[in-house]
Write a structure and sequence with these properties.
Oligomer: homodimer
Structural class of chain A: alpha+beta
Order of helices and strands of chain A: HEEHEEEEHEEHHEHEEEE
Strand content of chain A: 35-45%
Largest interface: A-B, 63 and 63 residues
Number of strands of chain A: 13
Helix content of chain A: 10-25%
Distance between the termini of chain A: 46 Å
Radius of gyration of chain A: 18 Å
């Protein structure tokens, strides 16, 4: 039974266990232009894996290929443990609706994060504190309103039409759940797809866009995240190229405490 | 029949067509410490897809999860077209040996690269010409000797033992096939795994290391590559973090003509 205290995010990513076939359903609260927000789909797939009785270790890598639009309503997740090793697991997940074609195809790696030498060459990005920045206003896509975006650099400016030269594709942004929720692997996964498409930034306008493939690496264990006890991340994101209808994106998600939580990259289709 | 004119790379990535099950075999010429060089496995999987009669479009994204060591000898590739759209395809490939567990799990996206607005925010790295740099000497791992590495920055220095502080994880390097071969998607794929592990650079020593998951995005079409007519790439690579036995890597592969051919990222296990 749902209670009033359930976070929308947890409601949206809820799954019902099966043996190899799990169930979930899309959430109107995390809806994008033509289907569910890709981040919530990725987080739902990750939740099915984390809650799977055979799962061992923490999420290390998740790749999600968005093969076809997902319609509003129920979906099935075919969850398969492809290979289990002593300290790592390889999973494959297929999302289908009503016995139809695969709409989303994902692979995941879980691993026991054993103590080791640690080194973080990446530098924590300098940023104005979250509290000193105005939240980004609500927009039409419901998913974006579930987040509290506070742009430090690279503010969205999609109303101006194409400028003479492309604008910067870099953004630095604080991201929190609008209704605060402690950061865990699920929200990190979802937030790794929560950047506005870089092509919008480059062209200073909205154009048809869809993520095709998304890969996120987790650089902390569940215990690290639990100990961090944070409810927002500082993220930096950029793009390197847009060519022949496809463009890339790469980002970092940081704990306010200076720890790199995750790196992410994606390639997406655009029409421009 | 093989002739003397076959390039070692094409020999090493050769596959025999089946319906959904293709065959290949490991190559001693591209051997790493405990199994085949990951790049050659990735390129072999890509070759099976490119040569598949149902394949349409150019490779856009390939993710390869290395689940278990591959033994010397023959392997099977179970190749499955998961979803075909009007202008894109989603594939899944499982590599097995002798009917055993899955040793490698890959997903790929192919797409028709239609003309569009183009923009390359990433800057072409400045580098001394290939010809002015001495080739990196031959080493014990045979795969590395199939490449002509010319380090512009971040030379490997693995003999010194661990320094007081970790060394830089950045490298800039020209990569060509030792026996020259025109760059195509297959060699781009293989070269995207041809960086020495960043943990070796950070620690200035060799430690046990294995790539766990590798993702490469192609930013040019086959026609772009064919028109470029190049036989080497300029690559930059770096790492952001090493923590609890896993570390990341991210790289760019450039045409000498200033075009970004591919971006790549991977996460790998290390013992240190």
């Amino acid at each position: 039974m749902l209670t009033k205290t359930t976070h929308l995010f947890d409601d949206a990513t809820r799954v019902t266990a099966g043996d190899s076939r799990w169930q979930g359903q899309t959430s109107d609260d995390y809806w994008a232009f033509v289907g569910p927000f890709g981040g919530i789909t990725a987080a739902t797939i990750l939740r099915a894996l984390i809650e799977h009785p055979e799962r061992a270790g923490d999420p290390l890598a998740l790749t999600v290929n968005y093969c076809a639009p997902i319609a509003q309503g129920a979906f099935d997740l075919d969850v398969r443990l492809v290979k289990a090793n002593r300290s790592s697991q390889h999973w494959c997940v297929e999302l289908t609706q009503g016995g139809g074609d695969v709409a989303t195809l994902a692979t995941a790696v879980f691993a026991e994060r054993r103590p080791s030498w640690s080194h973080q060459p990446a530098e924590f990005p300098q940023a104005k504190p979250f509290e000193q920045i105005k939240p980004y206003p609500r927009i039409k896509a419901s998913w974006a309103n579930q987040y509290d975006f506070r742009f430090v650099e690279g503010h969205p400016d999609f109303g101006g039409g194409t400028k003479d030269a492309p604008a910067s594709t870099h953004s630095k942004v604080w991201i929190a759940d609008r209704v605060l929720r402690k950061i865990d692997a699920l929200s990190v996964m979802s937030m790794s797809d929560a950047f506005f498409a870089r092509v919008f930034h480059a062209r200073s306008e909205l154009v048809p866009f869809g993520t095709v493939s998304l890969t996120t690496y987790f650089h902390v264990g569940a215990d690290d995240l639990a100990a961090d006890d944070i409810n927002r991340v500082l993220a930096v994101v950029d793009a390197k190229i847009f060519h022949k209808s496809y463009g890339d994106q790469n980002g970092e998600l940081w704990s306010p405490n200076g720890r790199l939580l995750a790196t992410t990259t994606q390639i997406g289709y655009f029409k421009a």
